[in-house]
Design a protein that fits this description.
Blueprint: E1 14-17, E2 26-31, E3 34-37, H1 39-46, H2 50-62, H3 68-71, E4 72-78, E5 84-91, H4 92-99, H5 105-124, H6 130-135, H7 143-156
Antiparallel strand pairs: 1-2, 2-3, 3-5, 4-5
Length: about 170
């Protein structure tokens, strides 16, 4: 069963990435609690050729960082010629992995953003996307109820004295 979420209080199934300095926007499909991009859209997102994305994905699968079965899904898309085609899309895990391998200005900006998020999580123990929460975009109808339930559960479990990260 598909688990589509709300984006800016609509039932749209796409999140739009808007680049800096008037760069072209990229629509990322949001379904089943993850983002999905084709190789072509990943190439646009990171400012590289599709062949570069394809090569990195191949290496990601060969090294067993990710498995193709876990990160690839086919979606039917309508092309500019009006015909429907089955196209492979890659989930957020694959997008992030490619972003950490690609050498481009956009990929560097992505890594800087991701490092900032990871740094905030490591220091504070949580990360909030304040803008998204204030606008209500890209959140499910029960998002805040689930968040409050998690906070209550943590508080009821008692004080957390030691934090251990196990890989």
């Amino acid at each position: 069963m598909s688990n589509k979420k709300l984006i800016r209080n609509s039932t749209a199934e796409f999140l739009i990435f808007t680049g800096q300095a008037g760069e072209q926007s990229i629509e990322a499909r949001y379904e089943d609690e993850t983002l999905w991009l084709s190789q072509k859209l990943m190439a646009e997102l990171f400012g590289v050729d599709v062949r570069t994305v394809s090569e990195h994905l191949k290496n990601i699968f060969v090294s067993q960082e990710l498995t193709a079965e876990a990160v690839i899904r086919k979606f039917r898309i309508t092309a500019s010629d009006g015909k429907n085609y089955q196209t492979q899309f890659y989930n957020l895990d694959a997008i992030i992995s490619v972003g950490y391998r690609v050498n481009s200005l956009r990929a560097t900006q992505f890594r800087q953003w991701a490092t900032g998020v990871l740094r905030e999580f490591a220091i504070k123990g949580y990360v909030l996307d304040r803008l998204r929460m204030e606008n209500g975009s890209f959140l499910g109808e029960d998002y805040f109820e689930r968040l409050l339930a998690e906070i209550r559960e943590i508080r009821l479990s008692g004080p957390v004295i030691n934090f251990v990260f196990e890989a």
